[in-house]
Design brief:
The protein is mainly alpha-helical and about 120 residues long. It has seven helices and no strands. About 75% of the residues lie in helices and about 0% in strands.
């Protein structure tokens, strides 16, 4: 799912930034529109969130980590997804997810809070 999301986001960014030149630089972009990619991104981000939620309550995960409290990390994943979508749709900052995570303080804080929460839940039972 994550790989598909990255591809859709890069395609969307190319279509938005390059406009009419997008298809000449990357011919596959003739097959897509920003609207279609936005719909695909919505499906993949929803699926990612559902998959993560199911992972946190899975019996395998609970057995592996010895706790059901990994669900406390879900709000940070949800906020991270929403923040990222906000940045690409309202701020036009798509392109490189890696750069956004490093350069956007609220997104970086969300990632750090997820790490701290998951770490605390797993290691400090």
């Amino acid at each position: 799912l994550q790989r598909n999301l990255q591809v859709f986001l890069r395609f969307r960014n190319d279509l938005v930034v390059l406009n009419d030149e997008a298809a000449s630089r990357r011919p596959i972009l003739r097959e897509y529109s920003v609207y279609l990619l936005d719909q695909m991104i919505s499906v993949v981000t929803s699926s990612t969130l559902v998959a993560y939620c199911l992972y946190t309550i899975s019996e395998v995960t609970v057995a592996k980590f010895g706790t059901r409290k990994l669900v406390y990390s879900i709000p940070f994943v949800l906020y991270g997804i929403f923040r990222y979508l906000y940045l690409i749709h309202k701020k036009g900052r798509g392109g490189s997810p890696e750069n956004l995570i490093i350069n956007d303080i609220p997104l970086l804080v969300s990632v750090l809070m997820w790490i701290l929460t998951a770490g605390a839940v797993i290691y400090w039972r």
